Here is the input.
Amino acid sequence: MLAWTIYISFLGVLVLLLLPKNSVRAARIVALLTAIAGFAVIAAGFLQQRSGELVTVARVPWIPSLGIEYHLASDGISLTLLLLTGIVAVSGILFSWNMEHRAREFFAFYLALIGSVYGVFLSFDLLLLFVFYELAIIPKYFLIAIWGSTRREYAAMKLVLYSFAGSAMVLIVLVAAYVVAGSRTLDLVQLAQFPFPVHFQMWAFPLVFVGFGILAGLWPFHTWAPTGHVAAPTGASMLLAGVVMKLGAYGCLRVAMMLFPRGLDAWGFHVLGFGSWRDVFALLALIGIVYGAMVALVQRDFKFVVGYSSVSHMGFVLLGLMTLQQIGLDGAVLQMFSHGILSGLLFAVVGRMVYDRAHTRDLAELEKTHLSKAIPFAAGTFVVAAMASIGLPGFSGFVAEVQVILGAWHAFPLFAVGAGVGIVIGIAYTWRAMQKAFFGAPSRGTVAVASPLPPITLPERLGAFILIGVSILIGLYPQLLLRVIVPALHSPLFDGLWKGSGR
Amino acid sequence: MTLLPPISCLTIVPLVGAIAVLALGAKSPKLARGLALGFAFLALAITLVLWHRFNPASGGLQFEEIHAWIPTLGVEYHVGIDGLGLLMLALSAIIVPMAMAASWPIQERVPLYFSLILMLEAGLFGTFTALNFFHWFLFWELSLIPAFFLIRLWGGSQRAVAATQFFVYTMAGSVALLLAFLAIFLCTGTFDFMHLADLGRNGQLLPSLAVLADWHRFTAEKLALVLCFGMFVGFAVKVPLLPFHTWLPATYAEAPTGTTMLLTGTMSKMGLYGFLRILLPIFCVQLRSVRTPLLWLAVATIVLSAYAAFAQKDLKRIFAYSSINHLGYCMLGIFAILKFTGDDPALATEKAAALSGVLLQMFNHGLTAATLFWFVALLEKRSGGLRGLNDFGGLRTVAPVFCGLMGIALFSSLGLPGLNGFVGEFLIFKGAFPLAIAPTSVSVVGLLLTAIFLLTILQRVFSGPLQERWSRMPDLTVGERLALLSPLALMFVLGLYPQLVLGVINNTVLQMVQQLR
Here is the structure.
């Protein structure tokens, strides 16, 4: 049934393209209904699947001569990320409600992106996964290049080039793995059980991890993320930060770590203090956490603050993966979900509620306007989002980051302290941006906003309530997701990971 | 009441109130104030019921509720109170309506203001009842957010700086606390305070810490000290203890006075509560090993803050430093009872005296300090915001009732026998002296200094030549007198009949002392 998420989305694209050219209203409604239908399918699937074990969704031969199948399946990790995509997709459309310029095409690209993302999360054949992964790049490019703002062509091109560079690395390993495994299959389940030689895994793992890691904002390959997020229109920023970055993290976990767990083993020698790829990537993740936070602290552009915060928060995902502890991995998957919801919310406030009204994102400019009086709802939403984002207990970010740090305490104690420092800097930049943007003192003499800003619309309120509600729900009752995540990480597919970790 | 779990209800009432005030009060500030006060009184009523039904013969936890929450993380919904918890609940429930009354004149964004106060109250109730770290930390942090906004939006001219300083200091403390607790969870697999306290007492904590110590090339003892220090910082910032106090004077001075009452009356107690409920039971051995420096830190807090109060010209800043001073006595008492006494019954009695004194002092300081700040608020209302020590003079002649009543609060703060302040301080000194002779003797200097600067206020503000501009200053209205009556009456009652509180906490204190050895 879950396969319908993909079909529905592309069906939506088709319907949108058949609509008459100027039907903005109809386009919105079709897009919203499509997204809601997709979400409903996922929700039904989520409720049906009790344990989080692997369940096959669809399996038919595709290129029989090469042993390649159209194989869709889902386990707890896929389900969690599908759920995230569904939620962000619906609220993203609500926050794009004011899209007038070529709205039909905008929503068509938007749904195409979502459909491809669903495809990636459901694919259990490596080639199929790769196809959907590549497919997602195209709508990303157009969404930014056509509807974007600040330096949109540059940002769109940068995003595409980075994505292709990553894909190329993945493709090399994909072909090599196919050949090494006997040229019979690219099925993920079978490949996960195939004992790849250790020396092969030793170079395949870092290549795939970096290849997917680029999209997850792995430092120092993260630079596409802030520029891309900032340039994109609100709905697309929400998808980029909320969902597309998760594609990268998902790839790291599902392909790199699941297929080549031996690549994480110790090299047996030390280079500059690093004893394995695991040490290297954990350090890169930690640098991402701290560096992203410090750069966010000095931004003038409100949207860049949020953009860099994404780099910092995704660092927690990658650090969690590298702990190779049960609890760290649980935390990493939960953090993927949590960051998706919260970054979506933050971009919605900055891009839609503030920028579309005040027409500036410069914190120094915003400081003079005293927005908390002009649009109190936006201020309130941002305060809640900021609280969630700095990891206050009661919100999803806390349970996720706590688990990552717990894992890190075990694996790399010093890094856990470093991540703690990252959290403190996170508090500082979030609070700084909040104070400047919303609670700036209207300096005497300068006139505050000349004309009253348009009030917050109903779709915006709805979208904000959905995202905040989900974050609080998961924050107070994370068991809802952990129930499927934990068994999925314990399934035989990940056996290699636990055997190698010496635990 | 018998059907509903009382503690959960108590925590939920202010939360519901916060939402109701925000939703219903948007149109009329009057309704918002009334509704908020109504919810605060409802919470007070529930607290009184709890007080009534509390069984003072038991020193253990009562009204316990345990439910599974996040099994994979060892998180349970576990609440309960003993004498200490009950006392803190009562204090919070009393201070909140007082703070609301003092905030009555606030005109700007009234519903939001009162809704934030109620949220803060929920945070306090949660913190004082939660017995699982996760759950407790949620409320600990929850109380911070409303406090931040109360300062940020309604504070004085320097509010932006003060609010940020307050927030960053306390959050940094919280992160230290969080990291320490996560490390402990990794070693022991539990977040439950009672369970951890058992481990600490039985000496099982150190062996389990050895798991992590491996990584650090640390010994388990050293690691325990590091973790103990992490928690210590988290709590010490909140109390505050020198040298973690620098956020406090600016914050207290800039916050709207109603909020200052909450900050000093209740939020500072969260830190002390943390010491007593969490740090002391778990890390008794580690704290004991650094007892002497800690004692002198407490002495420094007492003496230096009293000294600093001398140099201040702003009434709010004077009372801010005096708060640090008064809570310093609590810290002195807490560190004094760390002394290992074995089975010596005489010293155990002294410990019990000191600990009872600490608990009493926590309650009394909350009551007295909040009342004093309330008087400052009343003064500010009349003077149009002026509150300098030298701005007034001779008010006694124009506002005799105001001066008389504020005099009572000042004398209570100074520790005059017959008023509430005396009993707590007396018990602390009586108990702490045999346990820590030198530090206790030196800290007596603090008492003297306090007396001097409080009397200075009395002289400069109430006596002396009357300034012309104040000659028309109105005295307290009937409403204000009535409102002030209850806290002042409580001061007398507790001063003359401390048994009211001692009876409730006695068995809790005895049990804590016995567990400390």
